[in-house]
Design goal:
The strands form 3 sheets. A 4-stranded mixed sheet has the order 1-2-5-4. It has a two-stranded parallel ribbon with strand order 3-6. The chain is an alpha/beta fold and 245 residues long. It folds into 2 domains: 1-137, Alpha-Beta Barrel (TIM Barrel); 138-234, no CATH class. Helix 3 links the parallel strand 1 and strand 2. Helices cover 33% and strands 9% of the residues. The longest helix has 19 residues, at 32-50. The protein has helices at residues 2-12, 32-50, 69-78, 160-175, 190-193, 197-209, 219-227, and strands at residues 59-60, 83-84, 88-89, 105-107, 128-133, 136-137, 139-140, 146-147.
């Protein structure tokens, strides 16, 4: 019952729901059937808990960011998912501000395994034309420490300013280069592990909300623009970007 209540509360507040498996176990040995049970099964559970139609739950992330090759991506295509967000790429040297982060890309052409695009084993080798990849881009502290996700760089004693400066530093790498979407990827435990992270995140989001050319959107909303881009003056023409409140 608690799962349903928590997930529905998040959905009712406008958060996008995705599938992250039913058991959150290491998928290295999963078969195609396992991928289907794990990803489609969680999709069904979320749909029941929230009342959101299954075909509106369109994104997923593999447990521990461990890709499943053709077993994973063939299931996603067959089940009508829109995107995966498990590939870790688009890193680069923090001291080279001209290294562009990676934009989302389609899997019409299989990605070449590399540090820039798919920095792990079992990258898909076939074409999946209807699927998108929203890669997790490596993030850095101002001193050059790297982390896979937003919640991996700062220590317990980080101040609010430390959190804001870290987020700003990584946001600017996107904003001042090729404007690839900047994704804040974190686990809820970050707010316990780094006590000032919540206040710092709120301040950072307030700060960037003052920019006329920056939007805080879900991954599906972002892909709605990537697939059908319009000038920012016409952003309200994107149906999913219209605010109901």
């Amino acid at each position: 019952m608690m799962f349903r209540e928590q997930v529905k509360t998040l959905a009712d507040k406008g958060n996008e729901m995705g599938s992250h498996s039913q058991t959150h176990s290491a998928p290295a040995a999963w078969s195609r059937q396992d991928w289907d049970i794990q990803m489609q099964g969680m999709r069904q559970r979320v749909a029941v808990a929230t009342g959101i139609p299954q075909d509106k739950i369109v994104g997923m992330r593999a447990p521990f960011l461990q890709l499943g090759g053709e077993e994973q991506f063939s299931v996603l295509q067959e089940r009508g998912f829109l995107y995966d967000s498990s590939m870790f790429g688009g890193g680069g040297n923090v001291h080279n501000t001209h290294t562009p982060p990676l934009w989302p890309f389609t899997l019409h052409f299989p990605p070449t395994p590399s540090r820039q695009v798919c920095d792990q084993e079992r990258c898909p080798q076939r074409s999946y034309p209807r699927l998108w990849e929203v890669p997790i881009t490596e993030q850095f502290t101002s001193t050059g420490r790297a982390c896979t996700m937003t919640d991996g760089c700062l220590g317990h004693d980080a101040s609010v300013d430390d959190v804001v400066n870290f987020l700003r530093h990584n946001f600017n790498r996107h904003y001042l280069n090729n404007k690839a979407p900047f994704m804040i990827s974190l686990h809820a435990t970050w707010f316990d592990d780094v006590p000032n992270s919540y206040a710092g995140l709120k301040e950072f989001l307030r700060e960037i909300s003052l920019r006329r050319d920056v939007w805080q959107v879900t991954l599906t909303q972002m892909l709605d623009w990537v697939r059908h881009p319009v000038p920012f003056s016409r952003a309200n023409e994107i149906p999913s970007w219209r605010c109901s409140k």
